[in-house]
Amino acid sequence: MLYDAAVIGAGPAGVTAALYLVRSGLKVALVENSATGGQILSTAEIENYPGFPKSVKGWELADLFEAHLANYSVERVRGQALSVEKQENGNFLLNLSEDKTLEACTVVACTGARHRPLGAPGEEAFAGKGVSYCAVCDGNFYRGRDVAVVGGGNSALEEALYLSRIVNKVYLIHRRDAFRGAMVYQDKIREAANIELVTGSVVDEIRGGAAGVEAVAVRHLADGATRTIPVDGIFIYVGMEPVSGYLPEEVNRDAAGFVLTDTEMVTSLPGIFAAGDIRAKRCRQVSSAVGDGATAATAAFSYLEQRNA
Ligand SMILES: Cc1cc2nc3c(=O)[nH]c(=O)nc-3n(C[C@H](O)[C@H](O)[C@H](O)COP(=O)(O)OP(=O)(O)OC[C@H]3O[C@@H](n4cnc5c(N)ncnc54)[C@H](O)[C@@H]3O)c2cc1C
Predict the structure, then answer these.
(1) CA gap 169, 154 in Å, rounded
(2) Residue 120 in domain
(3) Is the Cβ–Cβ distance between 6 and 31 less than 8 Å?
(4) What pLDDT band is residue 249 in, cutting at 50, 70 and 90?
């Protein structure tokens, strides 16, 4: 079947793009390899998305996205986009997992970003055995125990606060002396009695045994002093990398792989638009992803109108 638009990724950007496109009267496929919601499914509380003055849990917002989509005839396609090819007729062929294919006149790439690994010895060996990238998913395993959180941005601060309400103690390890995260989180972090700040320090190694993580070895950058902190788990939030490798090489990206667009979400390959965390931009949040999704859908609609004129 030929779709007017294929939206890849059902996070905040993709859900918004799909809603706008279907409400414009287009035939829309929404391709997703996991569940609706994207990164918000691994977010405990979202306090900064307008309309939820008492905050909203990530999974609750994802459920609302799903309910909103259900009002419209968006075709849900389960699968991972492996590659996208522009054909001679100007349409795009999407190669999906399980040998599925899909043809669409335009593509809106909303596959977001995933956690960058820390790169410390022990990280891979103890993945799923104490090393985690999702406090909401795994925090409960550490109830009453001690954990480390690594990072200094909003995600690290938010998740350290979330964990502090479950675990016995959180060591918040950050390579700089100052945090990048919002002041509202920094204030709460400093007020939390069971969060110890380990700043100006890097993780040299994650240590453990057959049962999993037992300690984290840290080094203070200024004086080289080392310290072994006994913990049962370590949660890593040291930045994100884009999920953009499946796009054609004609889609320009920055050195880190984030897709370059103009302010209308237009990429360097006509017919392909990009929205949300996949883009090269400064603010990666639910509200900006939603805005990008609406803008990309509007631009894709104009592109189709011009093409069909
Ligand atoms: C721990 C944490 C806490 C956060 N807290 C907040 C907060 O408090 N407030 C806030 O505004 N933002 C927060 N964010 C950021 C926010 O979640 C993201 O900015 C937002 O989800 C980006 O939306 P997106 O649609 O661009 O991408 P994503 O949410 O990354 O969604 C991308 C979707 O694409 C799918 N996908 C990926 N590759 C493929 C493929 N090849 N084929 C098919 N599907 C694919 C994924 O499964 C996913 O569902 C947080 C993020 C994290 C990780």
Answers:
(1) 19
(2) no
(3) yes
(4) very high
